[in-house]
């Protein structure tokens, strides 16, 4: 049996120490990334501070058992709607993958956005990539130690700000700062902030591209979604090969057998995952377009057409026609439409009042005389509408039942609390009968059915 030959991919950006020194570049795709990432960063760091009627705009409150989305409160029972949003987002991600590859990873993924921020801090404190690469493995001077201390300090501060902001979507951020300034942070909250800060520091500062290649499942499943019409960052080998030295520009212009690639390796130097796109499509590529910006600059300097590296499909590189409609795209689009429609329907049919009824297991029934029997219940009422503060409780059934317990529940004091109730039947009808608890507020009424155990039990 003939073995499939293996090829060892070389990574010029890796100087043998396992660390990739990313060279920053400017260009069209860098500007697009800014237009996408900076608003996302602004929303992430700013939205946590926005309030509406004293409530955060977005909060997943464990203490209140509420999900507050843009001022509207939802119950934990509505978590399925968030799951539906995630399903819809997954289908949208599939559409993007089938059409343009891993553009989400390159332009909007938090891992990529934070990695670029950490790289910019690294360049600000330690200099350009070429300078950092030359210093690797050399004895550190006092100045270099100060630069590294400044870099890691800024990294840690950004990681801490990220951890506090992220936690602020589960615990009101103002409460976090109030507790921190008075040194009253709970051990659980403090531990979580330290863990979250450490993970951010490691992921964006030290691990970086290894997360994209080894931890992110998207790099593994993208091969299932890709086809010959998927547009990804691609190197046009038919135009670029055979490569020649950029120093022989005059000879290149006169030699038609030489390709446009001058083997400058800038496409590798600017790659955040350290791959050589000229070696073909690779799982590590996040389609960020940095290599396109770098190559286009070189082509412009050499007065040649841009696009030696560009977003292109395999069919386009081979000059094959692309279909007007693709079945896979249409299928994902239909699934996305169904998912978003279901979520939209769910958000318009949420309940603002949640009621739970359970029997008191310690005393299911109580006999008061020969013909007088009572059942004991525990009732919990939660309101997710700030206007509903008082709920009236009633009980109806086939007999003349009497209700003993708070006739009106004050939700300002007893929301989410278990309250004891007793329902009595003077006639003590034998067997099991159905009763209905009614809970009525200003603009809402909820009915809950349960059973009443009569005589003979």
From TrEMBL:
<dbReference type="InterPro" id="IPR017896">
    <property type="entry name" value="4Fe4S_Fe-S-bd"/>
</dbReference>
<dbReference type="InterPro" id="IPR014116">
    <property type="entry name" value="Cyt_c_oxidase_cbb3_FixG"/>
</dbReference>
<dbReference type="Pfam" id="PF13746">
    <property type="entry name" value="Fer4_18"/>
</dbReference>
<keyword id="KW-0479">Metal-binding</keyword>
<dbReference type="GO" id="GO:0005886">
    <property type="term" value="C:plasma membrane"/>
</dbReference>
<keyword id="KW-0408">Iron</keyword>
<dbReference type="InterPro" id="IPR013783">
    <property type="entry name" value="Ig-like_fold"/>
</dbReference>
<feature type="transmembrane region" description="Helical">
    <location>
        <begin position="79"/>
        <end position="100"/>
    </location>
</feature>
<keyword id="KW-0472">Membrane</keyword>
<dbReference type="GO" id="GO:0051539">
    <property type="term" value="F:4 iron, 4 sulfur cluster binding"/>
</dbReference>
<feature type="domain" description="4Fe-4S ferredoxin-type">
    <location>
        <begin position="248"/>
        <end position="280"/>
    </location>
</feature>
<dbReference type="InterPro" id="IPR051684">
    <property type="entry name" value="Electron_Trans/Redox"/>
</dbReference>
<feature type="transmembrane region" description="Helical">
    <location>
        <begin position="153"/>
        <end position="171"/>
    </location>
</feature>
<dbReference type="Pfam" id="PF11614">
    <property type="entry name" value="FixG_C"/>
</dbReference>
<dbReference type="InterPro" id="IPR017900">
    <property type="entry name" value="4Fe4S_Fe_S_CS"/>
</dbReference>
<keyword id="KW-0249">Electron transport</keyword>
<dbReference type="GO" id="GO:0046872">
    <property type="term" value="F:metal ion binding"/>
</dbReference>
<feature type="transmembrane region" description="Helical">
    <location>
        <begin position="183"/>
        <end position="202"/>
    </location>
</feature>
<feature type="transmembrane region" description="Helical">
    <location>
        <begin position="35"/>
        <end position="52"/>
    </location>
</feature>
<keyword id="KW-1133">Transmembrane helix</keyword>
<keyword id="KW-0813">Transport</keyword>
<feature type="transmembrane region" description="Helical">
    <location>
        <begin position="329"/>
        <end position="347"/>
    </location>
</feature>
<keyword id="KW-0411">Iron-sulfur</keyword>
<keyword id="KW-0004">4Fe-4S</keyword>
<dbReference type="InterPro" id="IPR032879">
    <property type="entry name" value="FixG_C"/>
</dbReference>
<protein>
    <submittedName>
        <fullName>Cytochrome c oxidase accessory protein CcoG</fullName>
    </submittedName>
</protein>
<keyword id="KW-0812">Transmembrane</keyword>
């Amino acid at each position: 049996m003939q073995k499939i030959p293996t090829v060892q991919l070389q990574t010029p950006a890796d100087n043998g120490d396992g660390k990739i020194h990313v060279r920053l570049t400017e260009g069209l795709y860098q500007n697009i990334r800014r237009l996408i990432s900076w608003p996302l960063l602004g929303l992430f760091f700013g939205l946590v501070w926005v309030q509406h009627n004293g409530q955060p705009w977005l909060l997943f409150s464990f203490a209140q058992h509420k999900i507050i989305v843009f001022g509207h409160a939802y119950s934990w029972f509505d978590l399925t709607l968030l799951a539906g949003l995630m399903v819809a987002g997954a289908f949208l991600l599939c559409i993007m993958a089938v059409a343009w590859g891993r553009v989400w990873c390159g332009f909007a993924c938090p891992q990529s956005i934070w990695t670029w921020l950490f790289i910019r801090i690294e360049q600000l404190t330690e200099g350009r990539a070429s300078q950092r690469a030359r210093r690797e493995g050399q004895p550190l001077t006092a100045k270099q130690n100060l630069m590294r201390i400044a870099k890691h300090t800024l990294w840690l501060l950004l990681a801490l700000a990220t951890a506090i902001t992220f936690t602020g979507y589960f615990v009101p951020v103002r409460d976090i700062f109030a507790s921190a300034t008075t040194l009253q942070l709970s051990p659980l909250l403090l531990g979580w902030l330290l863990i979250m800060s450490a993970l951010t520091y490691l992921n964006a500062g030290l691990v970086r591209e290894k997360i994209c290649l080894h931890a992110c499942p998207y790099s593994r499943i993208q091969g299932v979604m890709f086809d010959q019409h998927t547009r990804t960052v691609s190197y046009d080998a038919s135009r670029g090969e055979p490569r020649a030295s950029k120093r022989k520009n005059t000879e290149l212009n006169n030699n038609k057998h030489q390709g446009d690639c001058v083997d400058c390796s800038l496409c590798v130097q600017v790659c955040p995952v350290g791959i050589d796109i000229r070696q073909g499509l690779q799982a590590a590529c996040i389609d960020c377009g940095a290599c396109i910006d770098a190559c286009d600059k070189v082509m412009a300097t050499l007065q040649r057409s841009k696009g030696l590296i560009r977003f292109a499909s395999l069919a386009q590189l081979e000059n094959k026609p692309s279909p007007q409609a693709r079945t896979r795209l249409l299928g994902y689009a239909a699934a996305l439409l169904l998912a978003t429609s279901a979520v939209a329907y769910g958000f318009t049919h949420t309940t603002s009042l949640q009621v739970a009824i359970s029997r008191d297991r310690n005393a299911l029934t109580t006999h008061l005389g020969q013909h007088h029997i009572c059942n004991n219940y525990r009732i919990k009422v939660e309101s997710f509408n700030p206007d509903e503060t008082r709920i009236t409780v009633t009980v109806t059934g086939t007999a003349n039942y009497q209700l003993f317990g708070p006739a009106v529940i004050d939700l300002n004091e007893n929301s989410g609390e278990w309250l004891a109730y007793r329902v009595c039947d003077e006639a003590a009808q034998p067997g099991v009968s159905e009763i209905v608890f009614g809970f009525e507020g200003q603009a809402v009424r909820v009915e809950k059915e349960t059973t009443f155990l009569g005589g003979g039990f």
